[in-house]
Amino acid sequence: MKWEPSILLLVLVGLAESKILHASDSGIASTPNSPQCTTEGNLIDIATIFFAQFIPEATYQEIGKLVKDFLADFKKLVAEKPKDCLEKQLPAFLEEICHDKDISEKHGLAGCCSKAGSDRLECLLAHKRRGNAASIPEFQIPEPIQSCKAHQENPVTFMNRYIYEISRRHPFLYAPTILSLASRYDKIIANCCQVENVVECFHNKAAPVTKELRESSSVSQHICGVLRKFGERTFKAIMLTKLSQKFPKANFTVIQNLVLDGAHAHMECCNGNGPECVQDMNEIMSYICSQKDSLSSKIQECCTLPLRDQGICIVNAENDERPEGLSPDLRRFLGERKFHLYSSEEKDLFLARFVYEYSRRHQELAVPVILRVAKGYQEALEKCSKTENPLECQDKEEEELNKHVQDSQALAKRSCGLFQKLGEYHLQNVFLVAYTKKAPQLSPQELIGYTKKMAATASLCCQLSEDKQLACGEGAADLIIGQLCARHEVQPINDGVGHCCDSSYAHRRPCFSNLVKDEKYVPPPFSHEQFKFCEDLCHTKGEELQKKKQEFLINLVKQKPHITEEQLKAVTADFTGLLEKCCKGKPETCFAEEGPKLIAKTQETLGA
């Protein structure tokens, strides 16, 4: 692997918060390594991350035993073959999981351990994807006073326990990110424990770390999912687009080399290879800042920061300005008339050059939009280069390429118009109706969760200037759809969802937009239990009451997927009226009398 541009995409696709930290910065004692195994972090903590992510159900004591045994075995390996130790770390980690049969059998890994080499790794990764990390309660920051005492008594153990708790809840979060967040949390504790109002200090300073943790975990899982589902070629195209937008003045060869090395590094990170992931990050941050003058004018200050802080600074930095003199049209590229005679390698290189040139000209567009344009461009080249009048053909195809951008712009404008008119909650209900029709197999909790993120995206992106709304909205939609597709992979939803998730990365969002309903869905028999009204509704307030109303809405749509907007409005208005009427007087008596009337009316409306 080349040393210079290992994993710049971590910076550019939202993963650069995976900052490198020095052992001396972390406050955690480091394990002696050979020079070849230096990871600028702590092998004990990296081992903890690895084992906790692969076996999230394991206790802290079980993980501690695996770490201890691994370090003992690995020290022997380093003594025997110091030059090969970095390459041997991942196999050594996997071997340790399987060596302890009590732990591997207890946690259902015996089948994977019967395999060898890459088959064992893929089996363990599949187990990780199907794992129960989501069922583990969200990590609660310990009570501040107790935290201060425990941290003061044994900071190394305290922080290692924090790393364990974070890792088991976020099995695909990159190791450098976890180490970086741990370093920040360590400093928060050290600082807050010195002030008078410890509780307030913890609340104010720890909340941003928790938010960044959730966001980073979502992005890393999405990236690994795309890499696994669509392969290295699509992933390189994503990287090429982001890099070209971020550093539009960098020449094509530099960007191309960054893409090649970045793809390899991401693969290591997604495979859980923490040591190499950390080492690559160290190298790339050093490289970026050594080339800051030629890469971007926006990262100068970032490179004056400590190494561990440079990544998040760079990702938050604006895209550099476009070079002057770039022609806005595609004529130069569409003018290629011999495309159909190129070899597959020549075609790939030519298309990569197009993505580079188009992306640096269109920093306002989201990655999937540019990839849709690129796909259309490829088809145009194949088609027009075989026609008698290529120029006329190219004029028509150029108009078609612009439609990809226009469609996305229209969607952003429509969504923001609805947000301004309805507000976040009622916009969520619009999404809720649409996605209940698309995926009625999802539970009410899942549907509410996904659509809440969609509405929150509108709330965030529609406040931005128009030139930033499109990239913001399409980018966030890509993440949400990725989560929905990850759910489908674990437990299939329906054929329509499967088609949109599997057919094309670039066209996933348009595919879901065009998916109206599941044609094979058969509504369940009408059940009075779905529309049961009780006194508890009168004691439910705020967000919880809104959720109850949304569950009622979901049940309506699941009962009658073809329900019209007018019917929905009528039934939900009746439901709201029932609540207002019954909660003013004697709820139990009122619901007993009026509830059956509403159910009968609803049945009639639904034709059930």
Automatic annotation (TrEMBL):
Presence of the UniProt keyword DNA-binding in the record: no
Signal peptide positions on this chain: 1-18
One GO term describing the cellular component: cytoplasm
Annotated binding of Ca(2+), by residue: 268, 276
Subcellular location: Secreted
Domain Albumin: 19-210, 211-402, 403-600
Protein name per UniProt: Alpha-fetoprotein
Organism listed in the record: Phascolarctos cinereus (Koala)
Organism phylogeny: Eukaryota, Metazoa, Chordata, Craniata, Vertebrata
Gene: AFP
